[in-house]
Design goal:
Helix content is 45%, strand content 11%. The chain has 781 residues and is an alpha+beta fold. The protein has six domains: 152 residues, no CATH class; 73 residues, no CATH class; 192 residues, Nucleotidyltransferase, domain 5 (2-Layer Sandwich); 32 residues; 181 residues, no CATH class; 76 residues, no CATH class. A six-stranded antiparallel sheet has the order 4-3-2-6-7-5, with no helix packed on it. It has a six-stranded mixed sheet with strand order 10-13-12-11-14-15.
Length: 781
Amino acid sequence: MLQSNVQAMVLEMGLYGDFTASVNMKIGLEYCAKHSWISYTLNFMKENGIQAKVKHYQLEPARQGDKSIMQVAYAAGYRGTQLAHINAVRMHNNLVSISDLCNASGTKLNRVFYHRSKFRGQRNKFLWPRSHSVERHEWDTWMNFIFRIFPQGTNNVMLGDWIVKDDQDWLDNWDWFVTEDYQWLCFLDGEDWTMYAKIQTEHTGYTSAGVALCPNNRHNMRRATVEWSSNNLLVDSTDKWGVPMMKKYKRKINGYSIDRPLVPWMFKFIETSDKIDKVLEDIKNGTVVAVGDGSYFEIYSICTGAWVISSADGSQWIKGGGVVPGLNRDKNSYQGEVASLTGIATCLVALAPSLGRATSSIVVASDNDKAVDSLWWKRDYVKSSMKSIDLITSNIDLWEKSLVQPIPTRVKGHADKLHRPLTFLEHLNTKVDHWAKEIAISEKSRPIAQDLHREVGLGLIRIGKDVIVLNLNFSIQDCLEKQQVHQYLSSLLELPVEVIRTQIKWTCVERARKSRSFKQNRFITKVLANDLPVGSVLARRNHAKQATCPCCKMEEEDPLHFLTCLEHEDIIISLLDELEIHMRKVDTHPQIRDFILCGLSSWFKDPEKGTINFNPCQDFIQIAIAQNGLGWFGTLMGFFHKSLIMFQHDHYTEVQSRRTGIAWGKQMACKLWDIIYKLWTYRNSCLHETSTADELRGLDELEDAIVVEHRRGLRTLDGRKYGKFFKRDLDTLLKDTTQKKKAWFLLIRSARELDDDTPLDNFTHDDLLREWVGLTPIGVT
């Protein structure tokens, strides 16, 4: 059912190539039905920049230079409803290309399309979905399109030779034919032929009475376009089968022809011995040995696979490899191991022209047990949550295409782990491991190739520039959420989205978050989201009467004020001293240590200053500029530029330390987050001091109200009961503790409200103040 829906969508779009291609979605979604689930899916993909290559039958041109009808209509300026009208008539007549509208020679419009009745001819063998009858307004738009594209019936789209795959294809996609000697006109209806004899006295005329006969040499007949006259049939035009020359794949390996590699990015860096005839012979005999290995350099975010196919005696060999695509967080040594096995299968399929029809089974080995196990898997074992699902499905398809089948074999690890002579397989494994590392080192500074085309396995899925290779549902959702995060951080840090996405070493941030508790991560998320309960946020939540800073009393405390509050100077100095001790402990490069300390110290004093007093060495200038460009708030949040992490990693390499720059970045992010949390804790300790809390909640309003109530005296209150409360001196009363002042005011104000003798002040309408002193909120009885 899924395949049927996809094919129906392909026909409804009527465009050449992959219907999920961005260009096709842009055009097709303007006129395709909006209510189908496929349309909803395509719209979602278009909105979020998702590209997914789906395996399906694709519409192709019938002739050289041909164009799809809907592509021509879009290029002519038709949009929206007009395109929908043209598409409705096109589908009603079961047409795809401009050549379907033309006569056999492709020079002009077939005049049958001037008529409103359904076209009964044969232009393809597709199973078209049922179409509704054409409405008048749809027909009017169609005729407007016809007159515009075929002025005076002439075709302006230059059509060349027919593109025909085989003899039967020549007959299946047309209906009228003329024999080579032009003596018979033939009509094909399904499997039935009807032949009409030529009228000898007329140049293009044939009798209208036909005979049910099957013509001889029918594959050599010419396609024809026929018009009906009053008494006979007239041939308007004809065209013969002229198959265009197709470019052949001409690459060779050591003089032997090969087919086009189905996974080209794992068929690079090809090297061979002087001769490979023994390799080919051993493949046929099943005695050849193939070994693959992968390499993952986390600091460079590069994963490679390498492979070798060797003759049984090791005298001849073919080796190759490539860089494995995918998101940085998805790359690992396992992916490289599976990719190396993909390279072996790709090579064996490509060597098919030199192997003939020989079938055999060969040893395919790897030192990764899970990668070896994947060679046993079949199509029904595949799940969308698998790791490296793109490579695993590619392997399954490649081995199904290959006449050579694998014998999965485990090989021991690297040479330095063994205390005995190496076997032949182990020797090859160490060679391939070294080869994979060489590829990684040579390619680490080059941009990853964007052409990740492969003709087997799971279709290529992209979201923007990210390639999805594992756990499809989670990875797609994660990529979409990351796009939103990048957009938000771009606005917060005032940096381009591309800088946020590509220049920050996100691996350090991800690992730092994994090492922290949920509570700690939630706090950092609130800092980034400007959602901490400070200032106006507290006032909005009715937790404070004023939005002032509890430390420096600054009005309208913003969410990040606690980081740069002037009252925090002493504790900031102490925290920066702790940070310096930590950086010395983890052997931070002196330039990085001084740079970070100077930058943070300057930013804490004046966030708007923008410059720091730091003199970098020549090698560190560009790195300092790059990190400074991310901003010091970004640095405080653990966002380190890739070049800074690499500079620290190179420092560890120089001092022969086993530490890595990524581990340093993770530890630094955690330490900086601790600084933020300690500043927040200090700010809250000031807030929750009794005097400060009372001041924020309305102490001034309380004292003003007490003065008014005391000066008003008893008035309507019972003197025997309340008189003693007014005998106290006002100054003495105001010097009491906040709790005693609240108790005095609660007693007097409650009695006033019972006597309906309440003065107008903030306590008459502000529920926050009323609840603070203990009065019943307004409207509550």
